[in-house]
């Protein structure tokens, strides 16, 4: 039994505990136990709901009592608070010229402070309040057997590329966290309605935490578990823009960074075969996100690890570069899922279809065909062959113009 399972066994568990942050993260050095209507920074911020959680933080909806504005507070674990890359990234980006327009595309830090709790001293990052993450909206639409309208897909794709172009022009790389979970809709319309945030975001679902042996709770754990805001009534994607979250892995272009683990479906080939990544890895991740928006699925999957991930890359992109074959053979040999030696004629015997069917998948919406050349330009094995964000935007504008003139966007 794992340490997590052992910790769970101590409590009368309801479903919320299984779907939220791990209970074993509430320990000295770990997460801070937050309760609804807790106050922070000498009473300035009052918490009313939970926006999300991760391995090293929880995020809460709060009212700034000094300005009467709604904000989000990200509370880091005590261990991660000691040296926060995210805070340093916010501070570096804040020193850049405002004319770059970073605030248009990236979440803005409003305030930060430290809070002493039973598990240690926690860094709290106060940002503008944003709406639901893109995967939340897609999941809810999927439950209704529908999808984002094509004009919204185009808007989100263009906005994502614009954000990357601005960041790269400023000389920075977003890093490993430029994935679907960090693409978030704004919620300006809801905030502009009198009482809108209060009505929609201050009601919450929670369950009390109770020990099986009847003993009192440790001060390290929360008295109740709060469910992450599900945004069930959200339908404002037509009126809102997107912004990018999580700047904790941002770094200057040209700066050496250790090889890292990207999220499975977005793991770029250079991380697998060259043990490195740079600003052009942002472009691969953008290509994966735009592909998902167009085809309703990720282009690649990694259920069996790197071997299966690379095989799905080959399905769409074709044979690997020759210089990667020795590493590929080692990956095959090391994989418990290995199915034998490589086909000498082709890296895996599969060939991509170069038509408007990207791989074997047909573009669901005809108006989104103009995004296919952009995706192809972003999802290339070699970083040197990838479109820059500016080139991708220029291509998209050209294809939109041709489409508007009645000129076929694809041959």
From TrEMBL:
<dbReference type="InterPro" id="IPR017441">
    <property type="entry name" value="Protein_kinase_ATP_BS"/>
</dbReference>
<protein>
    <recommendedName>
        <fullName>Protein kinase domain-containing protein</fullName>
    </recommendedName>
</protein>
<feature type="transmembrane region" description="Helical">
    <location>
        <begin position="283"/>
        <end position="304"/>
    </location>
</feature>
<keyword id="KW-0723">Serine/threonine-protein kinase</keyword>
<dbReference type="InterPro" id="IPR051175">
    <property type="entry name" value="CLK_kinases"/>
</dbReference>
<keyword id="KW-1133">Transmembrane helix</keyword>
<keyword id="KW-0812">Transmembrane</keyword>
<dbReference type="GO" id="GO:0005634">
    <property type="term" value="C:nucleus"/>
</dbReference>
<dbReference type="GO" id="GO:0004674">
    <property type="term" value="F:protein serine/threonine kinase activity"/>
</dbReference>
<keyword id="KW-0418">Kinase</keyword>
<keyword id="KW-0547">Nucleotide-binding</keyword>
<keyword id="KW-0808">Transferase</keyword>
<dbReference type="GO" id="GO:0005524">
    <property type="term" value="F:ATP binding"/>
</dbReference>
<dbReference type="InterPro" id="IPR011009">
    <property type="entry name" value="Kinase-like_dom_sf"/>
</dbReference>
<feature type="binding site">
    <location>
        <position position="74"/>
    </location>
    <ligand>
        <name>ATP</name>
    </ligand>
</feature>
<keyword id="KW-0067">ATP-binding</keyword>
<keyword id="KW-0472">Membrane</keyword>
<dbReference type="InterPro" id="IPR000719">
    <property type="entry name" value="Prot_kinase_dom"/>
</dbReference>
<feature type="domain" description="Protein kinase">
    <location>
        <begin position="45"/>
        <end position="399"/>
    </location>
</feature>
<dbReference type="GO" id="GO:0043484">
    <property type="term" value="P:regulation of RNA splicing"/>
</dbReference>
<dbReference type="Pfam" id="PF00069">
    <property type="entry name" value="Pkinase"/>
</dbReference>
């Amino acid at each position: 039994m794992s340490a997590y399972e052992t910790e769970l066994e101590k409590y009368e568990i309801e479903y919320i505990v299984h779907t939220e942050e791990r209970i074993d993260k509430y320990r000295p050095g770990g997460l801070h136990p937050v309760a609804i209507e807790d106050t922070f920074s000498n009473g300035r911020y009052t918490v009313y709901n939970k926006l999300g959680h991760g391995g090293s933080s929880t995020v809460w909806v709060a009212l700034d009592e000094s300005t009467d504005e709604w904000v989000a507070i990200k509370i880091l674990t005590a261990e991660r608070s000691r040296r926060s890359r995210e805070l340093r990234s916010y501070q570096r980006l804040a020193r850049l010229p405002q004319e770059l327009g970073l605030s248009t595309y990236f979440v803005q830090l409003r305030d930060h402070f430290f809070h002493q709790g039973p598990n240690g001293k926690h860094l709290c990052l106060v940002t503008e309040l944003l709406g639901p993450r893109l995967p939340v909206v897609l999941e809810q639409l999927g439950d209704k057997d529908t999808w984002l309208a094509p004009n919204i897909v185009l808007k989100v794709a263009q906005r994502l590329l614009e954000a990357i172009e601005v960041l790269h022009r400023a000389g920075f790389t977003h890093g490993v966290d430029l994935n679907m979970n960090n693409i978030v809709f704004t919620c300006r319309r809801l905030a502009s309605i009198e009482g809108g945030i209060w009505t929609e975001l201050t009601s919450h679902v929670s369950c009390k935490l109770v020990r099986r042996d009847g003993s009192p709770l440790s001060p390290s754990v929360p008295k109740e578990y709060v469910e992450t805001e599900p945004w069930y009534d959200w339908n404002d994607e037509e009126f809102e823009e997107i912004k990018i979250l999580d700047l904790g892995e941002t770094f200057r272009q040209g700066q050496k960074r250790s090889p890292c683990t990207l999220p499975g479906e977005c793991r770029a080939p250079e991380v697998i075969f060259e043990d490195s990544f740079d600003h052009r890895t942002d472009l691969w991740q953008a290509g994966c996100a735009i592909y998902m928006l167009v085809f309703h699925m990720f282009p690649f999957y990694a259920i069996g690890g790197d071997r299966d991930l690379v095989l799905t890359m080959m399905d769409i992109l074709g044979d690997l570069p020759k210089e990667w074959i020795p590493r590929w053979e080692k990956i095959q040999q090391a994989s418990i899922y290995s199915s034998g030696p490589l086909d000498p004629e082709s890296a895996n015997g599969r060939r991509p279809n170069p038509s408007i069917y990207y791989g074997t998948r047909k573009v669901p919406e005809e108006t989104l065909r103009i995004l296919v050349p952009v995706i192809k330009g972003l999802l290339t094995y070699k970083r040197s062959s990838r479109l820059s964000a500016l080139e991708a935007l220029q291509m998209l504008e050209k294809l939109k113009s041709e489409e508007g003139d009645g000129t076929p966007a694809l041959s």
